[in-house]
Design goal:
The complex is a heterodimer. Chain A is of the alpha+beta class. Chain A folds into two domains: 198 residues, Transmembrane di-heme cytochromes, Chain C (Fumarate Reductase Cytochrome B subunit, Up-down Bundle), CATH 1.20.950; 50 residues, no CATH class. In chain A, strand 6 and strand 7 form a beta hairpin. The longest helix of chain A has 28 residues. Chain B is α+β, with helices and mostly antiparallel strands. Chain B has a single domain, classed as Oxidoreductase, molybdopterin-binding domain (Sulfite Oxidase, Chain A, domain 2), CATH 3.90.420. Helices cover 31% and strands 24% of the residues of chain B. Chain B starts with a helix and ends in a 9-residue tail after the last helix. Classes of the chains: A alpha+beta, B alpha+beta. At the A-B interface, helix 1, helix 2, helix 7 and helix 8 of A face helix 1, helix 2 and strand 4 of B.
Chain lengths: 287, 257
C-alpha cells in the first residue's frame, strides 16, 4: 500500500449499494434515540449531580464526582466540580451556570446540554425510558438482522489478514489517510473493531448498567449488580459509558466528514455510495 | 458539479441539519406540554412494568449485610409534617396513634402501635433508591403488610392498597401525601409497615411512627407517616387520579425502574 504511487481519482466511477435499507433505518433511529437518551440522561443526572462508587451513595467514602455551587470568599456564588478529590472552579459550565434566560442557577450540566432546559425530572424520565425501549428493541432487531443477513460475518468481523495489518491501519489513521477506489467499499480493520466493540460491548453495557439502577431488576438474579460494584457504581459506569458513546460518535462523524461527507451521508440515506475509479487500481479479484 | 454549486449544497445541508436538530430539541420541550405526547411516552412505563413482572414478578429485592449500612440514613421530602394533629400525636409519643384499615375489606380495623408490633414482623437490610439518583442502605423492622391484610379479610374486588399520610405537601396544610401499590406488592414478603430504623423506633424525619417499605420500587413509593390504609378497586377517583402524590405531578406509578 505505502509503496504504491498516490491514488489519483479519474473521472467516472460508479454507485454501488453500500447499506441495506434495514441498516439505514436502524442507524437513524439510533441517532434520534441516542441524542434524546443523552440529553434526557443529563437532565436526570442534574437531579443529583454527584457520582459514587459502591452499593450506596453513603458508604463513608467520598463521592467520585460532585458538581455543586458554593460561595467564594467574597460571598459570590461559584460553580465547583470535584473529581476524585480535586476541586475545580467550573462556574458557567458545571455546578452553576446561566439558564436560557440569563439567570444564574445551581445545576450540574448547563441548560444547553439537557432536555428540557429546566429541571423536570419526571418528564426527563418518561422520555429517557421511552427512547431506552426504542433503542433496546432497535438494537435487538439489528443484532438479529446482522447475524441472519451475514452482515456481521461478511462486513464486520475482521479477517486474520486484516488483524495482522492493524499496525499499518493505525499509521494510516494517524496520517488521516483513507482508502479510495475499490478498497473504500470495505470497512478497514480499525473501523470494524470500533463498530464491534461499540455494538457488542459498549452499548449493551450501557443498557445493562441502566437496568442495574432499577431496584426491581436488581432482584432478578440476587447480587448480580454487585459484580459491577453495586448500584451506585453501576450509575457511574452508565455515565462513563454515555460519554464513551459521545466520544465514538465524535470520531465517527469526524471520519464521515474527512472521507467524503456527502458520499457517506448519501450511502446512509439512499444506500448508494460512489466508488471512484483509481488510476492504479488493482481489480478486487486479482488481490 | 461546479465547486460553487458544491459549496452551496454543503451550506444548504449544514443549515438543514442545524435546523432539524434545533427544531427536534425545541420540539421535545413543546411536545412535553401537549396532552398526548406524555401519554405516548408513558406507554414505555407499561413495557417496563410488563418486563418487570415477566422476569421478576416474585423476585426479592436485594438484601445487604450490616457492613453495608450507611453511616446515617438521610431524610428526604417531609422532615416533620406541618400539621397540628400530627404534632399532637408525636407529642404524646404516638400513644394515641391508630392505623385505620378499611375500604374493600370485610373487617375494617384500627391498629395501635402495640397491635402492629404484635403482627408477624420482618427485619431486612435494604437499599433505598431515590428517584433523584442516590441510594442509602438501612435496616428496617416492621409488620408484614400481608399479615395485616389477611387479618382484615380483603374482598375479591380489591385491586390496590392506598396509603394516606399525615404530611401536607402544601404550606397551607392541604394536599396530604398518599401512595398506592398493587396486590402483588402488597403481599410481597419484603413489604412491611416499618416501625424501626436501624434498631431504633422510626424517627420523625423518616416517617414516624410507621412508614411503608416496598423494596423493589423507588423511594417515593415508600409512604411515610401512614395514618390510614384503604383497599380499592381503582384509584382513578382519589386526588389527582394517578395513584400517588408524585404520580399526580407526573411521576410514574410503576417506580420499579
Amino acid at each position: 500500500m505505502e509503496a504504491q504511487a498516490p491514488a489519483v481519482p479519474i473521472a467516472g466511477g460508479y454507485l454501488y449499494r453500500r447499506h441495506a435499507l434495514p441498516v439505514r433505518i436502524m442507524h437513524w433511529i439510533n441517532v434520534v434515540a441516542l441524542t434524546i437518551l443523552l440529553m434526557r440522561g443529563l437532565g436526570i443526572f442534574n437531579a443529583h449531580s454527584a457520582l459514587y462508587w459502591g452499593k450506596s451513595s453513603y458508604t463513608g467514602r467520598p463521592a467520585l464526582l460532585v458538581m455543586t455551587s458554593i460561595e467564594d470568599k467574597d460571598g459570590q456564588p461559584i460553580g465547583v466540580t470535584t473529581v476524585l478529590g480535586h476541586t475545580f472552579d467550573t462556574t458557567g459550565v458545571f455546578g452553576l451556570s446561566k439558564d436560557r434566560d440569563g439567570e444564574l442557577a445551581d445545576r450540574g450540566f448547563p441548560w444547553w446540554a439537557t432536555i428540557p432546559d429546566n429541571l423536570w425530572l419526571s418528564m426527563s424520565r418518561s422520555w429517557h425510558f421511552f427512547f431506552a425501549w426504542l433503542f433496546v428493541l432497535n438494537g435487538l432487531a439489528y443484532v438479529v438482522y446482522t447475524v441472519v443477513s451475514r452482515h456481521l460475518t461478511r462486513d464486520l468481523v475482521p479477517t486474520g489478514n486484516e488483524l495482522r495489518g492493524i499496525g499499518a491501519s493505525i499509521r494510516e489513521h494517524l496520517r488521516f489517510h483513507h482508502a479510495e477506489g475499490e478498497a473504500a467499499k470495505r470497512y478497514n480493520v480499525l473501523q470494524k473493531l470500533a463498530y464491534l466493540v461499540v455494538i457488542f460491548v459498549l452499548l449493551p453495557l450501557t443498557i445493562l448498567m441502566g437496568l442495574a439502577m432499577s431496584p426491581w431488576f436488581d432482584g432478578v438474579w440476587p447480587g448480580w449488580v454487585d459484580l459491577f460494584g453495586g448500584r451506585q457504581s453501576a450509575r457511574t459506569i452508565h455515565f462513563i459509558c454515555a460519554w464513551l458513546i459521545v466520544l465514538f460518535v465524535a470520531i465517527h462523524v469526524f471520519q464521515v466528514i474527512i472521507t467524503g461527507l456527502w458520499n457517506n451521508l448519501r450511502s446512509m440515506i439512499t444506500g448508494r455510495y460512489r466508488v471512484t475509479a483509481v488510476s492504479n487500481e488493482v481489480p478486487d479479484e486479482a488481490r | 458539479m461546479k465547486l460553487a454549486d458544491r459549496r452551496k449544497r454543503r451550506r444548504f445541508l449544514a443549515r438543514m441539519f442545524g435546523a432539524t436538530a434545533a427544531t427536534t430539541l425545541a420540539g421535545c420541550n413543546q411536545l412535553s406540554l401537549t396532552s398526548w405526547a406524555p401519554k405516548v411516552l408513558d406507554s414505555a412505563e407499561k413495557l417496563s412494568q410488563g418486563a418487570a413482572n415477566l422476569f421478576a414478578r416474585k423476585a426479592m429485592a436485594q438484601e445487604f449485610s450490616p457492613a453495608d449500612l450507611s453511616p446515617t440514613f438521610r431524610s428526604n421530602g417531609t422532615r416533620e409534617p406541618n400539621s397540628d394533629a400530627y404534632r399532637q400525636l408525636a407529642g404524646g409519643g404516638f400513644a394515641a396513634y391508630r392505623l385505620q384499615v378499611g375500604g374493600l375489606v370485610d373487617i375494617p380495623t384500627e391498629f395501635s402501635l402495640d397491635q402492629l408490633r404484635a403482627l408477624p414482623a420482618r427485619t431486612q437490610i435494604t437499599r433505598h433508591d431515590c428517584v433523584e439518583g442516590w441510594s442509602a442502605i438501612a435496616k428496617w423492622k416492621g409488620a408484614r403488610l400481608s399479615a395485616l391484610l389477611q387479618s382484615v379479610k380483603p374482598q375479591s374486588r380489591a385491586r390496590y392498597v392506598v396509603f394516606y399520610c399525615a404530611d401536607p405537601m402544601e404550606n397551607d396544610g392541604t394536599d396530604l401525601y398518599y401512595e398506592s401499590v398493587d396486590l402483588d406488592d402488597a403481599y410481597h414478603e419484603q413489604t412491611i409497615l416499618a416501625y424501626e430504623l436501624n434498631d431504633q423506633p422510626l424517627p420523625v424525619p423518616n416517617g414516624a411512627p410507621v412508614r411503608l417499605r416496598v423494596e423493589r420500587q423507588l423511594g417515593y413509593k415508600h409512604a411515610k407517616y401512614v395514618l390510614r390504609i384503604e383497599l380499592v378497586e381503582s384509584f382513578a377517583k382519589i386526588a389527582g387520579g394517578r395513584g400517588g402524590y408524585w404520580e399526580d405531578q407526573g411521576y410514574q406509578w410503576f417506580a420499579g425502574i
